[in-house]
Structures are given as structure tokens and as C-alpha cells.
Model the fold of this input.
Amino acid sequence: MKSCLEGDTRTVTPMLDQLWSDGAVVTRVQGILLPEEADEFVRQGEGMFSPSTVIGGASGESTGRTSNTAHIPKKGNDFVACIEDRLATMASHPISHLEPLQMTEYKKTQHYRPHHDYFPTAEPGKQRTTTVFTYLKSDNMEDGQCGGATMFAELQDASGTPLRVYPKKGDAVMWSNRTLSGDVNVKTLHGGEPVTCDTGHKIGLNAWFREGAWL
Done:
């Protein structure tokens, strides 16, 4: 895949690393973005962030989600459209099934409690099927010392330790929100653990795909 940066002749070759397969499939996509592509997304989001909301809350905001979010118009410019195409290729979904992208920012103490990305009920064709969460910024986060992991509460090893994916700039974590039979998969319960350091800073890019066309 070609770089999405204007005038950049480099190619992008993501590597898939399956992290979990028992009950739910969770995959790390290494190098889905070039570092400079991640920086460009962050640059475009400057000044757009506002407190994150949740569907169904009284005012939209929630103590369970204390991050900040920037909404990216679909195909808003050539760079965004190029990244959307790449994410759709990695997720094996038509680009038409992709919701508008969302950037989510976490600084010290900010978090998102465990939740599902799918909807409790959805009209035919409207359910979220696949999530790709890409790390755009991971300042002092990659070694796990400042928290901030994407944690899957239901995916636990023999000692009861849940699967944690720590941020790494340019990588993504991808999973299906459905079981093999097509039902919603409760084992995809996940959350963004709190950032614990003053110097910790995480920005992620949410890509959600529907079973039918978004528009």
C-alpha cells in the first residue's frame, strides 16, 4: 500500500500478529501507519477535540468515558480518504461500510470503562461488525509503565489476567464484534485503562465498520 502523504513514495506493509483466538479474535496490526502519517492525523485534529460522549447518556457525556474526541468527516480530504481505504483493506470490509473516523485523546487519569462497540439492538445492516483502533500517539506509553492499555476484560489467561494491548504509535488493534455464528460477541468487552503518568499521552483513531453501508 502506498503512503498517504503527498509526494511520499514509500510503501506501507502492515504485519498481522494474532494476540487472542479463544472466544474472540484480537489481532495487532503492526505498522498500519507510517509515523509521519500518524503525526499528520494528529495535526489535522488540532483544535477539534471536545469531551467524549456515549450513546444514550443524559447529556452525552459520562464519567465512564473521560477522554476527548475529534470527529473526522468521511473522505474529508485526500489524506483522510486514503487512510480510510487502507483501514477498509485491513478489515476486509467495503469502504462504504465505514463510519466517519473518530480520534480519541487520553491524558493523565483519563479512561474509558469496559464497554462493547456493538449496539444492544440494531436494525438490519446497522450493527457494528469490526473495530480497528489505531494508535496515533503513544508518548511514554509503549512500555506499560504509564497505563493506558486497551484491555479486554473477558479475555483472560489461566491466572485471570486480561489481555492488554499497550499503545504503540503506528500500530492498531483489530477485532470482530461478532461470533462465528454472526451473533454479537459479549467477549469483546474492552476499555481504555487510565493513563497514570503526567507525561503519558495517547491518541487513538476509532474505525467502526457496519454490516451494511453507512450512507
Summary: The helical segments are 35-45, 78-91. The chain has one domain: 16-210. Residues 16-210 form a domain with the Jelly Rolls fold (CATH 2.60.120.620).
